[in-house]
Amino acid sequence: MRCPDFLERYSDFRDGRLTDRVWLQQMQQHLKACPHCQRFHAAIREGVEVLRGLEPAEPTPAFRQALRARLADGASSADPRGALAPGAIAVATLLAVAATLLIYEGLARPRRPSLAGSRQSLPVVIVNPSAPFVSFAAAGGGQQGLLARWASSDSEAIAP
Q: Does pTM top 0.70 for this prediction?
């Protein structure tokens, strides 16, 4: 067992709620072998003992009276019309701004032209074992343009 596994199940182990015998044995063995988890267990045990030794805290009568007065004051000052809390107003404002931006982006964004109906020359990629060659010649398959001149010349330079 590793320390993270021990710490994950430590609360159930400490409270006696770990019912699986295999896990219980592994927890006990790890606690005997690991000095880090021994220190952790000792610190928790000492803290619990200190807290058990304290007397229960009871509020004073003056505190109870002040608390009742504040609760009554808060209940009487509540807006009977059910006004929105500042957090609700902020959320509503943010939602309105987000909706406005979405509508604005949908209407104001320029539309991209569709390439399906265009007669614009698209790049033609020629695949061969060497470096790729890209030409902007017409895609109609005609023997015109840079590609045709390159293919028909042996070693002469191609003028644009």
A: no
Query: What is the average per-residue pLDDT within 145-153?
Result: 51
What is the separation of C-alpha 131 from the centre of its chain, rounded to a whole number of angstroms? 43
pLDDT tens, residue by residue, 13-38: 888 888 889 989 999 999 999 999 99
Give the C-alpha separation, 18 to 9, whole Å: 8
Distances (CA, A) of 63 to 28, 68, 75, 77, 89: 46, 9, 18, 21, 34
CA distance 30 to 38: 9
Q: Do residues 137 and 147 touch, judged by C-beta distance below 8 A?
A: yes
